[in-house]
Write a structure and sequence with these properties.
heterotetramer; A mainly alpha; B mainly alpha; C alpha/beta; D mainly alpha; A: globular; D: mainly alpha; about 65% helix; cytochrome c-type biogenesis (chain A)
Chain lengths: ~250, ~240, ~210, ~80
Amino acid sequence: MWQFFHKLGSPKWFYGIANRFMPWLFWLGLALLLGGLVWGLAFAPKDYLQGNSYRIIFIHVPSAFLAQSVYVMMAVAGVVTLVWRMKLADLFVKAAAPVGAVLTFLALFTGAVWGKPTWGTWWIWDARLTSMLILLFLYLGVVFLGSAISDEKSSARAVAVLVLVGVVNIPIIKYSVEWWNTLHQPATFKLTEKPSMPAEMWVPLLLSVLGLYLLFGWLACLRMQTEILIRERRTRWVKDFVSTGGH
Amino acid sequence: MTARQPGVALVTAQVGTASAMWTVVRRDLKSSFRQRQDLLNPLLFFFMVVTLFPLGVSPEVSFLQRSGSGILWVAALLATLLSLDHLFRHDFDDGTLEQMVLQPQPLFLLVLAKTLAHWLVTGLPLILLAPVLGIMLHLEGNSIAVLCLTLLIGTPVLSLIGAIGAALTLGLRAGGVLLSLLIIPLYIPVLIFGTGTVAAAADGTPVGGYLALMAAFLVLAITLAPFAAAAALRISLSNS
Amino acid sequence: MSSPMLQAVDLQCERDDRILFRGLDFSIVPGTVTRVEGPNGAGKTTLLRILAGLNDHFSGELLWLGERWQSQREAFLRNLLYLGHRPGIKPLLTPLENLRALTAVRRPVSDQAMKQALDGTGLQGYYDVPCRNLSAGQQRRVALARLLIADEPLWLLDEPFTALDRHGVAGLEQLLLDHAASGGAAVVTTHHELDLPGMARITLGASPAGEAPS
Amino acid sequence: MAFDSLQAFWLMDGHGPYVWTCYGVFLAGLVGLALWSRHRRKVVIREQQRQLARDRQDQGESTPAAAATFSRIHPS
């Protein structure tokens, strides 16, 4: 068990393993995502309330879902960084943060564009959108702090602390935003909660969520490899690896 | 007294002021784009400050529509203020500023070039982001257009006036805070007319007069502020 | 001896309620290297900054080619090359870009010549590396590369030997001699034991009166 | 297929612009992210190859600064 844990912390080992897994992650993820999107766009039935604009759900929900879970993953990695000082964990935080920021932005953007035909306005200050916006700010803070500190080790630790502070804060932010929202009259437009979604709708949704997860895994591996090359540039194996062409 | 003796080969060739200014602008832009994060900081700050108002006051559409232009202007002003500390600080720290003062070209024009570069990387992005925030604050299309126009005229004034403050507080320990205290009072007229123009547009009154007045501010700032900033730079360098 | 390029008459400088020097008279003549020496805090850097016109907390006269400095600021600046303790190298730009920005405002120099100058200071292969990734000695060499293509006759160099290794020091000493031989003048502050043939000295802070024996 | 024709698929009962903008931006975002990440790894590898080459060059000469001549250059 500890042997495995130790191995997992070795960047060189991870680099090789990642190389082996990445094609699978990429192609499987791409197939699932595209399958889900094509199904959702062209074959899923029309929503009786919102019409065709609901088809945005097949990209909006995966982005929003992933945006939130990536932050949780980063927080877990942050704990591992601070407690066990595992190298790979802080690499993950650094590699995932920009991806999470982009996904949050995509969730916000698709939400806004979806809102126009549904609510008649691009943006309302309701609890869910506002929390998402704050999540974007948190992500950007992590990205900026990471690139502002040039020393790699202290940058990783500082970022881990910030992620943890953020994750403790997220529930507080969420509840205070919801309270704020009820204080000012709740949004007049509300998405009708449907008790059950027909399978023709949720299966493609599930596919695209899974696909995006796998693609995120691929992106995270790729970016972690880059971070490893930077961090370990003075080691023998990276020098050998780079001078033999870097593949 | 013989001014020129055979031994010394004096330099007579000269580089034109315009090309020297261009060199300054290019170097500053290049430097800024190598440190992209510094470009995004004021922009993000702008966004966040705007977000605080619906959260802190009210998310009601009627309130946001009424005060949206004021919120955006105040946020843009604060974001500019935040970025001003960088205007001369890096150059001061690495000695580029000394070299600039020792250039044969008039210093105030070089300061103008630096301010232009500063505006291109801070003021201009704010204007580009403003429509998005305007939509989020439920401003009307016409108001957003006028708002962007006032920002286009107003933010260079903010940069120019700010350059004076940045030059004066250069090399001081509490420079950042002091800079705000010095500069905010000077920003008030621009703020008043910036938001006033948008309010007039929302009421449907013609805004040509307001815009002309703001343009007059801009002309005044372009002609006077670089002199003041150049003088302040000499003083700050003399003390270091 | 030819007539002086730069002349200081009765210079006095006071800083933080302390008189750094007073009654300082000296001439910088073409074809010489002048070393400003004195203990720490004697005002070596301050004197150099006064000569460059960066510091105006002084009384006395500075004459450029026999005329008051203030009256011909532009001509003076065009003939002056000042390298401060912080030499104006932007850490985010590459050596070539730095050199280009520093020289382009004085006279157009081809990229070819600038690369030669960087080669001349031992920076071949580093043209495109951002300066913040260079060592202190290499950054100093970027600044010194400017001297290789400079046509300004008057050089004011504040601690130019800092962070240089033995080869660099020898090279720079030779460069100063070359510059003097071609009719230029250089004023140098340094902690390093500099003793060039024909070198003039300005000594600060040695005697309480601040007189400058040479 | 939930649509009768390609035309209907494109228009989506008037919601076409919204839906297609969203999908476009989403795909552009993901593709951009992927390309940027790959490019970054390539740049890092290339940068390190150059650094290695420089190190080798520096080691090749007895002293790195020996090549420094400090001789003046006279650009025409």
